[in-house]
Amino acid sequence: MRAYLSTFRLRRRLELQYRGAVVGGVVCQIFFGLILVAIYRAMYLGKPQAMPLSQITSYVWLQQAFFRMLLASDPELLDKIRTGSIAYDLCRPLNLYGFYYMRILAQKMTGSLMRAVPMLIFAFLLPEGWGLALPASPAGLAWSLAALGLGLLCVSALENITMGFTMRTLDSRGMQAMLNLLMMTFAGNILPLTLFPDSWQRVMAWLPYAQLLDAPIRLYTGEKPPSAAPGILLIQAGWIVILTGIGILFWQKNQKRIVIQGG
Amino acid sequence: MSYIHVAELRKQFVVRQKRGKGSLLREKKTVEALQGISFDVEAGELLGYIGPNGAGKSTTVKILSGILTPDGGEVTVGGRVPWKERKAHVREIGVVFGQRTQLWWDVPILDSYELLRDIYRIPEEDFRKRLDTMTEALALGPMLRTPLRQLSLGQRMRAELCGSLLHRPGLLFLDEPTIGLDAVSKLALRDFLKWENREQGTTILLTTHDMEDIASLCPRVMVLGHGKKLFDGALGTLLSRYDTERTVTVRYEEADAEPELPDFLTILREGENMNLVYSPQDFPTAELMARLQKAGTIRELTVQPQNIDHLVAAMYREMDL
User: Fold this and answer.
1) Tens digits of per-residue pLDDT, B222-259?
2) Could you tell me the residue range of the domain that residue A197 belongs to?
3) All domains of chain B, ordered by start, with CATH?
4) Residue B309 has pLDDT above 90, yes or no
């Protein structure tokens, strides 16, 4: 276990070094946040929706703040697979799935926290109807934090499955373009899931992508009351088990047929 | 049983090739990377493994280190089958792939070592002791807190080597460890490997294209070509088959000295120097010396054996590699 914790710590330290990337990411995400909020404000002027505007702007800011959690592949891992340096990792007395899972988890967690803190401060300072509202209740905040933690485990398991695909295809770009589109759409980054038609939402809420950020955000804004939280967390836990299981099986299969090319 | 036992080892790869220029169709081709290799290595040996590019050297190393499953044949290392008991096996081995890196690029190398400590569950005290010895032997002291990316290639290779040996493996695989290194770094690396082999009793299996590596390190050498074992024995034995010619360089006190030599010996003049290539089998050395002395007063005379790289090239040519 210690090996995996150390892997997590080292990857976290590595992520903390990339401060320049944080500044760039924050500026970019603030820009997107402001544009999206402006669009929804304009839309509400024309035709107010059932969802209060302040909930939508909160939704947008939380999505933007934790953007890094969704869209971030570890370039080092992809490189290892492409160039064959993964040969070294295969020579370690470790479970490869666990080793990579820890690296992904550390990167997503550290990377998104570093960006989320300044972004959330910025969003709180914006006037009401533009920025991030306070959580609906202390209980809602506590539940949403728990759901965020589970969402992080969920997205890391998803990412590790993508890594497994990369080992087969050697080039991750095609696969990632497709998976990223699914991720952005069904995680609520392009359009808050709360704005989709109710009939769609009933299905979407069950998909793994909804467990990443949508579930914790709904608990934060109070769109889902704290009483609904245990059910939501249960769905999340279910997906973590399923996705991790698929990933572990996939990696085991890969490991048997792996070929490291080149001298 | 020997420490490493390999019998009838086979491995095929499927390579996809385009049918022609611009063709969208690809055809599959099977390449026999290893066609039944057998050898045994005793604990504590230092074995060199040579052969032209694509001979199957790296494939053997990958199978022996447990990351590739062969198509046929037997392999045991220390009584274990590498690809079947991967975790137990890799705990006992160290690997250096000369063209890849195991240390983390953007963090100080000490951090990478500490992660390796936890991966191999090395007790802290043992780790400190081993690290101290290794940093001294490899002169790594001043770089421990430097990120890998800021090290030169030679420094990096030393750092990689240290990383591969921290857990005191009984067996070390080195895949082209001196590639791209300057003379000083190469010499230091070789000295270190000799030291590690002698003091720690580590069995070392080295693949390389640098014949100096083999000449200075490996009492035993194995030649591989087209997936077959072509030679296994002492480097001297191997070379004596091809090592037939000598180059003699003479310089006379007199400018017009002209030794009487048979026509089949070609003389090349380079300023005051006279170079001639002869083979002791065709023309006795004593006879040559006598004739050279008769022609004038010799100021300087050197005899050079053939360049080892030329010998190996001649060998590869003859073996049709």
Assistant:
1) 988 888 888 899 988 887 777 778 888 899 888 788 88
2) 2-257
3) 43-240 (3.40.50.300), 244-305 (3.30.70)
4) no
Is A262 among the domain residues?
A: no
**Each residue of B11-26: pLDDT tens digit?**
988 877 777 777 777 7
Q: If you ran DSSP here, which 8-state letter would residue A228 be given?
A: G
Of the candidates B240, B233, B194, B246, the one whose C-alpha atom is nearest the C-alpha of residue B217 is: B194
Write the burial class of residue B65 (CB in 10 Å: 0-12 exposed, 13-18 middle, 19+ buried): buried
Would you tell me which residues 8-37 of chain B have a C-beta closer than 8 angstroms to some C-beta of chain A? 13
Which tokens go with A17? 């070094």
The answer to whether the CB of B172 falls within 8 A of the CB of B165 is yes
Distance (Å) from the C-alpha of residue A186 to the closest C-alpha of chain B?
A: 34
In a domain, A67, yes or no: yes
What's the gap in Å between the CA of B268 and the closest CA on chain A? 41
User: What's the predicted TM-score (pTM) here?
Assistant: 0.85
Contact A84 B100 (CB under 8 A): yes
pLDDT 10s digits, B35-78: 999 999 999 999 998 888 878 888 899 899 988 889 999 999 99
Residues of A with CB below 8 A from B107's CB?
10, 13-14, 17
- For B54, name the nearest residue in chain A, comparing CA atoms only: A263
Name the token pair of A130. Answer: 């533009």
Contact B121, B161 (CB under 8 A): no
β-pairing, B246-252 with B298-305? antiparallel
- Amino acid, single-letter form, for residue B158: R
Express each pLDDT in A197-229 by its tens digit: 999 999 999 999 999 999 999 999 999 999 999
User: In total, how many domains does chain A have?
Assistant: 1
**Within a domain: residue A143?**
yes
pLDDT exceeds 80 at position B311: no
H-helix segments, B166-284: 183-199, 211-217, 235-242
* Contact between B115 and A2 using a beta-carbon 8 Å cutoff: no
Q: Mind telling me how many Å the CA of A102 is from chain B's nearest CA?
A: 13
Q: What is the DSSP letter of B232?
A: E
Q: Contact, A221 vs A56, CB < 8 A?
A: no
Per CB-CB distance under 8 Å, the chain B contacts of A93 are 87-88, 90-91, 119-120
Pick the residue from chain A with its C-alpha nearest to B89.
A93
**Model pLDDT, residue A262:** 56
- Taking the C-alpha atoms of residue A63 and residue A216, their distance in angstroms, rounded to an integer, is 10
**Which residue has tokens 């591989």?**
B224
